[in-house]
Design a protein that fits this description.
By secondary structure, this protein is of the alpha+beta class. The protein contains one helix and six strands. It is rod-shaped.
Length: 144
């Protein structure tokens, strides 16, 4: 009798698990959940060409804006020029310019307090250890 008491719940668990495992396997189309939504089977792949609208520093074509520290006409395709005063970041060896984390470039030019003009491109998806600013990969920099 004791074996029967253990076998019945074990059998019920096996039936329940096998019913859950077969859900959504027929025809390649997932079965809708009680809310009517399709279950998520994998994360969507982000479009590498899509940038968030607020994180794109690429200016519109035209003459330099003259706005201190703001982006100006790009010198090449996809490049942006920023002008301003370099600030030190919260982490060692991290420097920022107008909310952008400067990645690469000549460190003798990109020192905190220096007034500079840098050319490069924003890389919002780049991971850094600086914990602040939108990464901006510097291709050229000089004091202004």
């Amino acid at each position: 009798m004791r074996t029967f008491r253990l076998a019945v719940p074990a059998l019920a668990v096996c039936v329940a698990l096998s019913a859950c495992g077969s859900q959504g396997t027929g025809g390649g189309t997932p079965t809708p959940t009680p809310t009517g939504a399709q279950p998520v089977t994998s994360q969507p792949t982000p479009d590498p060409t899509a940038l968030p609208p607020t994180a794109d520093p690429t200016p519109s074509p035209g003459p330099k804006t003259g706005k201190p520290g703001g982006p100006s006409t790009p010198p090449g395709v996809g490049a942006t020029t920023l002008t301003g005063t370099v600030q030190g970041g919260v982490e060692p060896n991290c420097v920022l310019l107008d909310g952008y984390l400067l990645v690469g470039g000549p460190r003798d030019v990109l020192t905190p307090g220096a007034r500079v003009e840098v050319t490069g491109r924003a890389e919002p998806g780049m991971m850094t250890t600086c914990q602040q600013g939108t990464p901006f990969v510097v291709t050229a920099a000089h004091r202004s």
